[in-house]
Amino acid sequence: MAETLTIELHNRQQAWAAIKAQVFPFLAQVLQGGHRWVLTIARRKRTGKQNRRYWGNGVLKQIAEQAAPGGKLYSAEIWHEQFKRKFIGVIELPDGSVQGMSSTGLDTAQFCEFSDQVEAWACTDLGVTFYDLQGHA
Predict the structure, then answer these.
(1) What's the domain range around 91?
(2) pTM of the predicted model, to two decimals?
């Protein structure tokens, strides 16, 4: 028997059906072993579709191609670091310098908000014009 069970829940009806069909049988089997188990219910982490829209040929690539503060272009990775610091927060390193907090722990709603903030700031402060972002999702 598997050690983990992952189920994506979309609505109450589907969730109840999944609990009856998958969770109850799984628990009935694993709890017979006498071990303790932890049930965690969490929002889904950001999706591959969100990553492709942000990283692929979408948001960051278009910012890197168009934004040139002080006449200098920066890579998508540099822009991502800038946006993490600006919109997510920073972690202080032992030497006192800082780096942007990781975006990998953001759930779908949080990553959507982060991406919206990046796009709005890039448009208003950097003059970026986005094109065909839906084609990159």
Answers:
(1) 48-136
(2) 0.71
